[in-house]
Design goal:
mainly alpha
Length: 260
């Protein structure tokens, strides 16, 4: 009669029951991330956001925009930061134009500050949604390739993240996702994002600070300026500096291995 009952004092449960208890369905874990990308895509199509995030639209509305800053400075900067955070969180294209707008409205340094704050807030939202979607239980089931990438990335997370943020060839939305999938701590992600986006932001905000003169001459700013040698060279130099701790640690490990 007692053969189906657990032994006295035993509280052990099957591993499957422990792992399954309290976990959410896969579709529910992926819902926040799907909503961010889905809402962003829908807003882009329905509201034709691309027509507003253009240098032509900025030229046509520049007097009105400057008037808003002059009359409602605090409200305008808060709205700007909030809008930039939403645009980043929903992965809406047009970050370069919006950064130029920040420099145009608030000047090079304040424009850079407001863009960095807004972009970091939006990037953190994507990071948290992606980390929720993957989840610890799902990460444990991932194959060895991702696990090796995860351990390698985590060992030098700040250096790698700085390089990804500094080099402008990597899409911003992709760099928001990769660290979450590779288990980077939130603190390191925030620091790497804050520091890594400053140089590129400073370039576009500086461009925006002088864009009024271009409009007066009937010209439009060139967002490709970031790829000019005099701009890209120093940024790549910063990326190399960010990788120096990684290179030094690898060199030290090889030297120790050779000595032993």
């Amino acid at each position: 009669m007692d053969k189906d009952l657990p032994e006295s004092g035993s509280t052990a449960e099957p591993d499957e029951a422990i792992e399954g208890r309290g976990t959410r369905p896969a579709w529910l874990r992926w819902l926040p991330l799907a909503l961010l990308f889905g809402v962003g895509a829908a807003a882009w199509l329905v509201f034709d956001i691309g027509s507003y995030l253009s240098f032509e639209a900025l030229a046509e509305n520049r007097e009105w925009l400057l008037g808003q800053v002059e009359r409602y400075e605090l409200r305008t900067l808060l709205l700007f930061v909030f809008a930039y955070a939403l645009m980043t969180a929903f992965s809406i294209p047009g970050g370069a134009v919006f950064t130029v707008l920040g420099g145009f409205l608030f000047g090079t340094w304040l424009g850079t500050l407001y863009v960095v704050v807004g972009a970091t807030l939006g990037a953190v939202a994507v990071f948290l949604a992606a980390r929720t979607a993957l989840g610890d239980s799902l990460r444990k089931r991932v194959g060895g390739t991702l696990k090796r990438m995860e351990s390698g990335f985590q060992e030098h997370a700040l250096s790698y993240l700085l390089v990804l943020r500094l080099i402008p060839i990597f899409p911003f939305w992709l760099v928001n996702l990769v660290p979450a999938f590779l288990g980077v701590p939130l603190r390191i992600y925030v620091v790497g994002t804050l520091l890594g986006i400053v140089p590129g932001t400073l370039v576009f905000a500086s461009l925006g600070n002088g864009v009024g003169a271009l409009f007066d001459q009937g010209q439009m700013p060139d967002a490709g300026i970031i790829f000019s040698p005099e701009i890209l060279g120093p940024i790549l130099g910063l990326a190399v500096l960010a990788m120096l701790p990684v290179a030094y640690k690898k060199w030290k490990a090889r030297r120790a291995a050779a000595a032993s």
